[in-house]
Write a structure and sequence with these properties.
Helix content is about 30%, strand content about 20%. By secondary structure, the protein is of the alpha/beta class. The chain has one domain: Spore Coat Polysaccharide Biosynthesis Protein SpsA, Chain A (Alpha-Beta Complex). It is globular and about 55 Å long. About 40% of the residues are buried. Bound molecules: cytidine-5'-triphosphate (CTP) and magnesium ion. Cytidine-5'-triphosphate binds next to helix 3. The site of cytidine-5'-triphosphate (CTP) has 22 residues, from helix 3.
């Protein structure tokens, strides 16, 4: 297995992280685009890019920013002290569009692509490296997962339970999701405008095996207002413990 070093792109293709950040954050309530709202005084997007750039495996970060905020995002990310190169493009109407636009901006020498929601700003860099290592070791597609804690039921249109699903075979999926670049590009090209809620979903449709690695509770997605409360609490705990958030 080749270890990703993050510093020596000479002997292999580079590893890029794409960050879809162009969503509005409707479920969070009124306000600026979700990725631009702050957490501990710092925009969610900046936390996410920092976490990716702090991973040993990541050489390059491509952000798909809200179309009207590309210039603001450029300023926001300009002072980040990181060796990873940062590229900013305008995102699209859907998450999938945003990822597709970022894919178009990838330099030629990128062979492995991670796709990471800006809305998961507290992902531990170890999770990023775990996903990247698994792709570098030979998997075409890799996703981080966690066991489901709630019982999950299928419910019909009338609000009647159809069945209880077997929780032992279900997993909650996080990001970053990692791909061999060629597999992800092909999956996007074949998607035919059909929307998938994650990138692995597109790859699955091509019957390419998607492997799983362990996710992490702190890689949760900020979706609803209470998620901000949890994220702030995690930041306070990290800062108290001397870990820079
Ligand atoms: N995203 C994007 N472009 C879009 C829509 C979503 O880049 N047109 C990004 C979001 O910025 C987020 C990630 O995809 O980082 C996951 O999406 P989600 O959590 O659904 O974020 P939003 O779409 O912003 O939230 P909501 O669905 O509540 O509006
Ligand atoms: Mg959304």
């Amino acid at each position: 297995m080749t270890e990703p070093t993050g510093n020596d792109p000479g002997d292999r293709g580079r590893i890029a992280a794409i960050v879809p950040a162009a969503g509005r954050g409707e479920r969070l309530g009124p306000g600026v685009a979700k990725a631009l709202r702050t957490l501990g005084g710092v925009p969610i997007l900046v936390h996410a890019v920092r976490a990716l750039a702090a991973a040993r495996s990541v050489d390059l970060v491509v952000v798909a920013a809200p179309e009207e905020s590309v210039d603001d995002v450029r300023v926001m990310l300009a002072d980040l002290s990181t060796e990873a190169e940062i590229v900013i493009v305008a995102g699209g109407e859907t998450r999938q569009d945003s990822v597709a636009r970022a894919l178009l901006a990838l330099p030629q020498d990128v062979e492995v692509v991670l796709v990471h929601d800006a809305a998961r700003p507290l992902v531990p860099p170890d999770v990023v490296d775990r996903v990247a290592s698994s792709v570098v070791a030979g998997s075409d597609a890799v996703i981080p997962v966690l066991p489901i804690v709630d019982t999950v039921k299928e419910v019909d249109d009338e609000g009647i339970v159809v069945r209880t699903l077997d929780r032992s075979v279900l997993q909650a999926v996080q990001t970053p999701q990692g791909f061999r670049r060629s597999a992800l590009q092909l999956a996007h090209a074949r998607s035919d405008g059909e929307d998938a809620t994650d990138d692995a979903g597109l790859v699955e449709r091509m019957a390419i095996p998607v492997h799983v690695v362990a996710g992490h509770e702190e890689a949760f997605k900020i979706t609803r207002p209470m998620d901000l409360v949890l994220a702030e609490a995690i930041l306070v705990r990290r800062r108290a413990g001397g870990v820079v958030g």
